[in-house]
Amino acid sequence: MTQKLYICPTGLVTSPQSVEGDAIRLAGSLAYAQSFALIVRENGRVVTNLQTTARGMGQALGDIPATLQAQAAMQWENLRKIHSPIQCGERVVRLEQPQVMGILNVTPDSFSDGGKFLDDPTVASDHAAAMLEAGAAIIDIGGESTRPGAAAVWEGDEIKRVVPAVEAVALMGGAISVDTRRPAVMEAALDAGAHIINDVSALRHDPRSLGLAASSKAPVILMHAPGNGEDLHADGKYTNVVFDVFDWLADARDRAMAAGISRELIVLDPGIGFGKTLTENLALLNALPLFHALGQPLLLGASRKRMIGALSNEAPAHQRLGGSLAVALKGMDAGVHLLRVHDVADTVQARNVWRGMRDAALTDFSALPG
To answer: Which of 181, 182, 204, 340 is labelled catalytic?
Structure first.
């Protein structure tokens, strides 16, 4: 008999004072949770669902089986954990509000902007500069499409695509992540001025990746994808997609730490759109607050994804701005720390307005004059 416990924030509020202080701040973000479900799974099946509020959590933790109390205490601590900033050379990316990561694809076949920034380095450089000026905290540079059915790229070609873009953004003083699953590309990009490794295979694609990432001391982003070979979208079979992805990310985190990667350098991504159906993607988006219980900063990458087209009369990728902003706002409400997006200026504007409303919510409106 295998039992696992999950503390799921189920009731989000705009401020603690709106519920007389009966709430916690989620993972150092501007999201607050009042109510929670303590869910126990046994051999993959939910057997217990205990509801409580923040004030009642102490008693609720005492009501669960003794064998699960250490798990529960750690998750409760993780939900309230304040994360350190991400150090990117001389730049510091603070995580107390959602930060925007701008996508720069230097590929011929990206689902959204394939080829647009590959053939002309000046166009790619101008686009990166525009994203930084618009408020992107990080530029994420990738040289291989990971859309379903995309052909694998030889690492030499990927390096030729990625390194010039990294060098150009480094000259601008921007914080840079390299979106790759190949250690040779990681190393070349870091040498060229990148700061963060963003691996959609969670450092599983090549056995050398874990050691390279550990020795580099660079922050790493570990994303959930069910496929274990070239096709990251394969083998997407889940008993419960939310809990299965949670457990998978916990294992990915622990594997990285066992390889020597400091816990403070690990960011987790639930992998929206990778080996998941529309229903499964929506379930993950609605359960985003749960993933704070893993104790790591969270990244959400859902910009222009196929899911948005499926809910929008099959709108093509370049016409999915509204849906992308809706998903980004969902992430902000859930306390996600990093938003990986194509449309930086629009997302930053949405974030700034959202931030203004959050700040205003911290003032007790009943005490306002009038």
So the answer is: 340
Q: What percent of the chain has pLDDT over 90?
A: 85
Domain layout of the chain by residue ranges: 3-79, 86-358
- Per the annotation, the verdict on 340 as an active-site residue is yes
Task: Provide the residue count of the chain.
Answer: 370
Q: What CATH superfamily classification does 86-358 receive? A: Dihydropteroate synthase-like (3.20.20.20)
Residue of 41, 182, 204, 305 marked active site: 305
pLDDT in tens, 80-130: 999 999 999 999 999 999 999 999 999 875 555 555 555 567 888 999 999
Residues 6+ apart with CB under 8 A from 160: 143
The strand order across the sheet containing 196-199 reads 266-269, 220-223, 196-199, 176-179, 138-142, 99-105, 338-341, 299-300
